[in-house]
Design brief:
59% of the residues lie in helices and 13% in strands. The protein contains nine helices and eight strands. An eight-stranded mixed sheet has the order 2-3-4-1-5-8-7-6, sandwiched between helices. It starts with 11 loop residues before the first helix and ends with a helix.
């Protein structure tokens, strides 16, 4: 029976193959290798692929697809391993065989010099390495250092459960390359490839992790000044009067914008540095180190030399975040104080408006009283004129009595009319 499965998710194959990305090369001693890591910008990614295609085409090898992130090819004179990462690209050149001096003729000598010169990006790591078979006997670190590492102090250990020894001085020599010597005591080819790759990754990730150190050193004095300024502003907030609050708020806003801007610029570098440092620690654990007499292990070297630098970076990042949080709290505190001041001002304004409204009401009542008197006087006068006219026509009236009697009647009528008009206006306003 033919089994029909549902359609694959568009990412299924890509995600499944991710665990197989950038596999280590199979290596058998003796061999020489040269490793380059170059930082590159997104604009240079197309040039990297073009450079690799040009090199392999020169040796009759088909170009890789421009979408791949890693590629291996046997170019006859050497084997190429190319790997693209988020911030850098790695090139590994492997040549079988070795001379009496493992660094006398490096593997990169088999690669066209013009092609190397035109590689896009900036060199961040360059290592000459050698994988040499040695008998299972004690080694002379001092003699090896004098012969191959310019007499520098070596760092090294037995790795892969004692199946090999790894030695380096973590220094850049006159030819602008570092040196790595791996003494094989019985590793399988795949095991040798994994160990060499881990050693090269330790060197690469170590340098990438240290990219944050100059940033931390640069911003530390700035952060110290910002901290002092924040302390000054915070102290001033407690004793600030109403006139000082806008100035303090403007200073806090400027300080917060400055810190946030710097934090945004440096957040990626500090976060990436911490991630690279974790990778260094993980790769060292994967070496399964065993101590060699008189030598620092890779783990000890990193703990003494790399860990303090990473602590400096972490301290700068933490101080930056702490400053941002404290400025935000101070801004919130001052904003609350400004709001309270504004509420008090608003309350005073409303109280003043209420006072004016009460005065206006009293004035209105006074005006209404005067208006009642004026209207009453005017109407009674009209009644008097009417009485005089009637008396002249022969009607027997006492005009003075008529006017006296009409005064309360007219006054009450005017008062009632004014009140009715006021109620009508109030209903219309509601």
């Amino acid at each position: 029976m033919t089994l029909v499965l549902p359609n694959d998710d568009p990412l299924r194959v890509e995600l499944n193959d991710e665990v197989h990305a950038r596999p280590s090369e199979v290596m058998s001693a003796p061999l020489r290798l040269t490793f380059l890591a170059l930082r590159s910008t997104p604009a240079e990614r197309a040039r990297e692929w073009e450079a690799v295609s040009q090199l392999v085409n020169h040796f009759g090898v088909r170009s890789p697809a421009n979408t791949v992130s890693h590629f291996s090819a046997d170019c006859g004179r050497f084997r190429l391993k190319w790997e693209r990462h988020s911030e850098f690209t790695r090139y590994k050149f492997i040549v079988p065989g070795i001379h009496s001096d493992p660094f006398e003729e490096p593997a990169i000598a088999a690669v066209p010099a013009d092609w190397i010169k035109d590689l896009p990006g900036q060199l961040i790591v360059a290592v000459h390495g050698a994988l040499v078979t040695v008998p299972d006997e004690k080694i002379d670190p001092e003699g090896i250092a004098a012969a191959y590492f310019g007499g520098n102090m070596l760092v090294g250990s037995a790795i892969a459960g004692g199946a090999a020894l790894a030695l380096t001085d973590f220094r850049i020599h006159a030819d602008r390359f570092s040196r790595l010597l791996v003494l094989d005591r019985g590793m399988t080819p795949r095991q040798a490839g994994r160990m060499v790759q881990r050693l090269l990754e330790i060197e690469t990730y170590r340098i990438m992790a240290l990219l944050a150190l100059p940033v931390a050193r640069e911003i530390s004095p700035v952060l110290s000044r910002s901290e002092q300024e924040l302390a000054k502003i915070t102290t001033a907030i407690a004793d600030a009067c109403e006139e000082d609050e806008p100035t303090l708020l403007a200073d806090l806003t400027r300080l917060e914008a400055d810190i946030s801007s710097r934090q945004s610029r440096n957040h990626f570098r500090f976060s990436a540095s911490a991630a690279y440092y974790r990778l260094v620690q993980r790769r060292i654990l994967e070496l399964r180190e065993e101590r060699l007499p008189g030598l620092q292990t890779f783990q000890e070297f990193m703990e003494r030399r790399l860990a303090p630098a990473m602590d400096t970076c972490h301290a700068a990042m933490s101080l930056q975040q702490s400053l941002s949080d404290r400025v935000a709290r101070a801004t919130q505190l001052l904003s609350t104080k400004v709001d309270i001041t504004r509420e008090q001002q608003t309350h005073a304004v409303l109280e003043s408006m209420n006072q004016r409204a009460r005065l206006q009401l009293r004035l209105q009542e006074t005006v209404e009283g005067l208006s009642v008197a004026a209207v009453t006087y005017y109407v009674v006068g009209l009644i008097g004129y009417l009485g005089k006219g009637l008396k002249s026509s022969g009607v027997g009236l006492n005009v003075d009595v008529l006017m006296a009697i009409s005064i309360p009647v007219v006054a009450v009528s005017v008062v009632l009319g004014v009140r009715r008009i006021r109620r009508m206006i109030a209903r219309a306003a509601a």
